[in-house]
Every structure is written in C-alpha cells, then in structure tokens.
Amino acid sequence: MNLILLSPEDITADGNATIRDPRRLRHLREVHRAAPGQHLTVGVAGGAMGRAELTALNDQQATFHCAPLTQTPPPALPVHLVLALPRPRMLARTLEHVTALGVKDITLLHTRRVEKSYWQSPELAAEKIRRHLVLGLEQARDTVLPEVTLRRGFRPFVEDVLPGLLSTRRGLVAHPGMANACPRGLREPAVLVVGPEGGFIDWEVERLLAAGCEGMHLGPRILRVETAVTALLSRLF
Ligand code: SAH
Fold first, then answer.
1. Which is the most buried residue in 35, 53, 124, 133, by most CB within 10 A?
2. Residues of the domain holding 49
3. What pTM value is reported for the model?
4. How many domains does the chain have?
5. Best substitution site from 222, 227, 232, 233 to test ligand 1's pocket, by max atoms within 8 Å of Cβ?
6. Nearest to residue 142, comparing CAs of 130, 150, 134?
C-alpha cells in the first residue's frame, strides 16, 4: 500500500482524515510499522494526491492530517483493454496488475472458451471488482479507478460496440501464431484484445480482424493471461 486512498467525504475542511477498515489498519501496523508522526502518501479517489502525517493509530482507526493535496495522479495508459473473462482468481490478479499499470478502461468479454460458470462468480460483484482495482491504485499511487464493463455476448460486442471503440483507436488482438509481432512504443490510443486461458477460436479471431483489429503475437511462448497482459502493455507503451 503505497498510497492511502480516501473518499472526498473522509477529509474534513481542516484537512483531517480517518480510516477504520481492518485491512488497511493491519497493513499500516504490520507492513509500514507506522507510528504517529510518520508521513504517508494519500490521495482522494478521482482527485489529487499529497502527503499526510499520521496523528493517531489504534485497533479501531487511524487519523491523519493532510497537507494541501496538490499532486496530480500519474498519466493513464491510452488503452482500452478487452479481456476474455478469466477464472475468478486470475481475474482478481489481472485486474490488480492492469490497474497498477495505468489501464482505465476494461471490458470483460465472453468468448467460446470462457467457462459459463465464471459469469456466476461472486467475484464479479461490483464491490469485489472495486476491491481489486483499489489494490492496484494503492500499489501504483494512483487515484483514478478504472471503469469495468461486462459483456456477455461476443457477437453483439464485436458488431455493435467494437466499431465505435476502433473509430478513434488502433485495434490489436493478441493471438499466438499471428504473422506480426506485437508493436512497440505505440503513439496512438489502442484497443488491446486478449483471449481466455484456452485461447480464441478461429471464428472469433476472424470476426475481430474483420472488425478492423490487427492480429499480433508475443513470440513462441504461451503466457498466462496475467503475464501476457503485463508483457503486452509494457511492450506497447
Ligand atoms: N492455448 C491458447 C493460448 C491461451 S493464452 C492458444 O494457443 O491460443 C491466453 C491469452 O493470452 C491468449 O488468447 C492471448 O491473447 C494471450 N497470449 C498468451 N501468450 C501469447 C503469445 N505468445 N502471443 C500472443 N498472445 C498471447
């Protein structure tokens, strides 16, 4: 936790803030070994960041006094990530990693090789998803939550939604065996499409290419979704 994320209503007019959730209190005590007088980085969800002094810490709450928050969060990656819905634990880790890397738009998509049962997972509840996004923001020192959209239909997404996204962005489908290698150092905004653990079926790749995406690969090694996404984003940007 490299940043303490506060909601605007957590901070009083004179700059005092209190947090009460057990996860962060434990982290402050056990990882930061925090003590009153220590300075930590804080940020307001969707807003500015700065330093705050821990004024008190006990089992119930931590209180801070915030200096004026003037620092802007780091720039976002200009990418809309379209991810075939991974199994719940992989989803949790992937959401955390891509949020830490600066992705702000995420679509979770159904494809043929996504198990239908994944869509019933309690991990897809908005509150659960938000928890993983917050972990990513705390890790990277960012305050801007990504927007996550669930799309349970592949064809409606590709036919009705993707063309709009591609009107202002370059579309890239990561698929082992494509002719071209993943480009490096993109200068334009992109839509990055990543498949499920079993990969895309041929028909899906054809539909994505027909919609205007370019196919590309990351070399002969088949990577897990969370590794592939991290490698793709760092290579693209
Ligand atoms: N068995 C599947 C691979 C699934 S890996 C297949 O052969 O297609 C899960 C997803 O990660 C893939 O759909 C792809 O989007 C991405 N990925 C993993 N390794 C990759 C590589 N070497 N090149 C391009 N994409 C890759």
1. 133
2. 4-66
3. 0.96
4. 2
5. 222
6. 134
